[in-house]
Amino acid sequence: MTRKVFAPEINHYQALVTNIADGPIVKWLDRFSGEAFDGNFKNAPLATLLENFRTFSHSYFDWIIKNHSLNNRQSRQTRHVLYKALTNLSDEWSIIHRACLQRENLIFRNELLDTDEAARHLYVKFKVFDNLYKNNEDENLLMPVTYYGKLFSITRYVFTNVPILSVPLQTLGSPHTSQSGLAHELGHHFYWNSLPEISDLNEMHRYISRLIKEAVAHYLDEHEDCRPETYDCTETYCLEDIWLNWQEELFADICGTFLLGPQYIESSLRIVDEQGVDFESLVNDDLKHPISYLRPFICLSILDWLIDNPRDDVNQDAYDALREERSSLNLNWKELEAIVLNSNDQNQYHRQYKSVSLSCLQKSVPIIIQALLGSSEPGIGNKEEKYSLSELIDYSEWLANLPNLNDKKANRAFTDISNQYNLDTVNVDNSHFFENLLQSIQSESSGQEEVFTKLLEMELGVEEYSRNVTIVWGKFIMGGRKRKNARYLNESC
């Protein structure tokens, strides 16, 4: 029997597709391509995204019609297939529509231009960018597009390489606060778009999985106390399973740390605080993201790798500053570690992961990072491998600027302390910031303890300098008489 297309149903849904593809899209295409209104609306990446969606929506619907047998007797199936196709298109369109609509508002448009620029600055640091897009006449066509949503997220489309990123509305007015979230989400983008061919991409994902498996095997060989009673993972959740489930998010955290360095870890610690620092929140596993208390430690382990593998083109002062930052951030993370490892609720964790203890999971972090980034140690990764994650991103800019950033941060913090405690700083030539604590304080000597405590609370690396700075002089005014008093930093730390 000859099959007949159920025309009324198809025409109805095709009209709905046309309403989307040839309605608001055409208007916004004119606007963001710069062909209508003024140049303030011009946005080449968004225009590219719109054009790609418009072409795809027609092709997708035509493919549905061509490849499904639809006739009168199958009207219910027809409706289901067509409705599903239209729903998929509507879901894809809703995010693009929001990005366009928000730019109708002058305040949103100006803020999103800044957020777009922040994302662009990070995007071009991926070294694969030039290789992937060098054939395009205008690389700006593929730059990130941002919009305001509830959370940081990225949408992956089959019809375009333009990344479209959601940033939380609370970042409005302070685009610099969105950098860490953007860095992480762009890591997801390059997890799926770092190679031109899908076959190469699948090979890279298998390569990362292989490195994780090899690292876990190497770790268990070296740590007998962490070996499960059985390697049969059919009934227990093994260490290998845990890390493989976290693979993509781990990749994104590596990218975030390489893109921003200590700034990314500060953000990670802040997010942990926001999500809750009770035991259950810190160890809850959604089978996608590394558990909360380990995420900052993973990033700290990445800093360790950077310190252990210095670049020839980066000054040693930068690595000294990185060690200082790492030490300061580690103090914060140690508080989370104490909450988890000293908790009486660890049995709750063991009920979920019968063969893995929290301490063993934590101990496996450095070797996993070494495996993924490259290590000279046999059996846990090779720096010369085809897909070297350590070569994915150019991280030289933030690393080289770290000493200057630390000085600015310290000076800004000390200005706050000086104002609070009525201090006057007397600078000593050729001395470090912490050696310049030659102070005049108009209070009794107990104020000195407050100042040192405040410095420690602000995590400015005092504990690091206690190893190098022998003595700090404090000059105090008491009862009209000046008294010079020596104090060892390590006594305060």
Overview of the structural elements:
By secondary structure, the chain is α/β, with parallel strands linked by helices. It has 3 domains: 7-184, no CATH class; 198-399, no CATH class; 422-492, no CATH class. 58% of the residues lie in helices and 7% in strands. The protein is built from 21 helices and 7 strands. The strands form 2 sheets. A 4-stranded mixed beta sheet has the order 4-5-6-7. A hairpin with an 8-residue loop joins strand 2 and strand 3. Helix 5 packs across helix 7 (179-193) and helix 18 packs antiparallel against helix 19 (446-457). The protein starts with 6 loop residues before the first helix and ends with a helix.
In short:
The chain has helices at 7-21, 24-32, 44-67, 75-102, 106-123, 128-133, 179-193, 198-222, 239-245, 247-260, 262-275, 279-283, 295-308, 316-341, 346-352, 358-363, 365-373, 396-421, 446-457, 462-465, 489-492; strands at 145-149, 153-155, 164-168, 423-426, 438-441, 472-478, 481-487. It is α/β, with parallel strands linked by helices. It folds into three domains: 7-184, no CATH class; 198-399, no CATH class; 422-492, no CATH class.
Q: Which key terms come to mind for this protein?
A:
four-stranded mixed beta sheet; three-stranded mixed beta sheet; alpha/beta; globular; 21 helices; disordered C terminus; disordered N terminus; 493 residues
